[in-house]
């Protein structure tokens, strides 16, 4: 379940980035310049979203009892999909 949700977040951010870049291409900007300008506009938002999601998921690693049993394994698959592609943006 966690991997499915993490994949959804990564794909959602990729779609937003591609739409922003294609908007610049449609306005007549060269592709390379459009990619740089589009990622410059959206990059900070994606990085701040990544940091906030990681901060929210960290306490789940330390929960005990029944809640920890259900959610204890969830943050582990989320760490890699949330951190690696977003930090490269």
State the CATH topology.
Multidrug efflux transporter AcrB transmembrane fold
Main sheet makeup: none
Our estimate of the beta-strand percent is: under 5%
**Count of DSSP strands:** 0
Principal-axis shape:
elongated
Please state the structural category: mainly alpha
CATH architecture: Up-down Bundle
Poorly predicted ranges (pLDDT <50, ≥5 residues)? none
Count of the separate structural domains? 1
CATH superfamily: Multidrug efflux transporter AcrB transmembrane domain
Structure explained in plain terms:
This protein is an all-alpha fold. The chain has 4 helices and no strands. The chain has helices at residues 2-26, 31-61, 65-71, 75-88. Helix 1 (2-26) runs antiparallel to helix 2 (31-61) and helix 1 (2-26) packs parallel to helix 4 (75-88). The longest helix is centred in the middle third of the chain and has 31 residues, at 31-61. The mean pLDDT is 75.
